[in-house]
Design goal:
Radius of gyration: 30 Å
Largest sheet: none
Helix content: 55-70%
Shape: elongated
Order of helices and strands: HHHHHHHHH
Number of strands: 0
Number of helices: 9
Length: 175
């Protein structure tokens, strides 16, 4: 069985939790470092838990984790939170599909509902629109785009307009 939390706190009295606390930018890790600092300064586990706004069990867990792994023991464990609906193996293919969808669009632009439909039909994944915007942001898609092109636009008509524009302006000025 491992040592008692009090002995573990005494063992690390000279570690310098306060210095690490002041340099840490992540709030959860800062809270853990501060609680451990309080313990090394003579506070009871109950008082340190009250100061850190947590329970004594958490304090004991942090002490043991620090004793076993050092500062790395205070880090967040991976895998927290909800799992992604779109599998990682399909992410690159999804990005390519969205880019292909935009390239094939004849006038107008791809909107979130188009991407939602693509995800449902090809990958069997249904995202609500609010969640879909987060997914698109994760893949660095920017939905700020230039003015859409009309599908019936003509390069010849545009060129003709540009070449005769100064003449038209000149005629307007004469009037």
């Amino acid at each position: 069985m491992s040592e008692s939390p009090k002995k573990l706190a005494e063992k690390h009295k000279n570690f310098g939790f306060e210095k690490h606390y002041r340099l840490e930018h992540r709030p959860r890790i800062r809270t853990r470092l501060l609680a451990l600092h309080h313990l090394t300064q003579g506070m009871t586990q109950k008082d340190a838990a009250t100061a850190a706004l947590c329970n004594e069990i958490s304090i004991r867990r942090w002490i043991r984790a620090f004793d076993e792994k050092g500062l790395a023991g205070l880090e967040e464990n991976p895998g927290r939170g909800r799992k992604r609906k779109l599998p990682e193996v399909s992410e690159e293919e999804f990005v390519a599909d969205v880019e292909k969808l935009q390239a094939e669009r004849k006038g107008g632009r791809v909107i979130a509902k188009d991407v939602q439909k693509l995800l449902l039909e090809k990958y069997g994944v249904l995202y609500e629109l609010n969640s879909l915007y987060g997914v698109l942001a994760r893949f660095n898609f920017s939905w700020v785009s230039c003015r859409s092109r009309h599908p019936k636009r003509s390069q010849e008509a545009i060129g003709e307009f540009k070449s005769s524009f100064s003449d038209v302006v000149g005629e307007i000025k004469k009037k």
